[in-house]
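The data layer described in this paper is built around a simple, fixed record for each protein. We quote a single record here, exactly as it is kept in our systems:
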Amino acid sequence: MSDLIVTVDGPGGTGKSSVSRELARRAGLPHLDTGAYYRAATLAALEEGADLDDETAVSSIVASVDFTQDDGLMYLDGRDVSAEIRRDDVTKGVSAVSAHPRVRALLVELQRAWIRTHDGRGVVEGRDIGSVVFPDATVKVYLDASPEVRARRRAGQSGEDIDEVLEDLNRRDRLDSTRAASPMTVPDGAIIVDTSLLDFETVVERLLGLLPPES
């Protein structure tokens, strides 16, 4: 069985998570949500009362805990934190934590190790996967959509005010695309799919069509 890594990058609200999970299911590949690692790292730092802007403090905490992702669930020192990492305070703090180079180095190695333990195969989603984590991936995809469409999708899922969601998405985009360490960008060789006017099934089918035969 040959290696097959599919990277799916892009900002929030493009359908990245749901599309990646369904693509993995239909292709018979394991699925890795790298954003959950950064959220778990943020949760760990918050629980320790650390200043999220303090790279030394945050990276020390991240180095001291165990991160595991299994069957779509995220574990922190063996504790299922899949729901907790979606808390509002985690969402607001994750860009600060993910901007720290030492934190990224620690978590990127865990993500690469995850793929190694899954026979070098998987659909991996995030914001620097095709550019930094797996630059030699078999297939690279960058999902995009207009800010307004992304905000409407997120607000529909969370019930939050759409203007507040739009403001938060724009804030995260700005932080993630301008950070010094592994900024969010379109990876070299990635196929850009704008999901603004596409339904879920169409996006999944389009990505399935990018996979090599007999994958």
The first helix runs from residue 16 to 27. The beta strands are 4-9, 31-33, 67-70, 73-76, 79-80, 121-126, 139-144, 191-194. The mean pLDDT is 92.
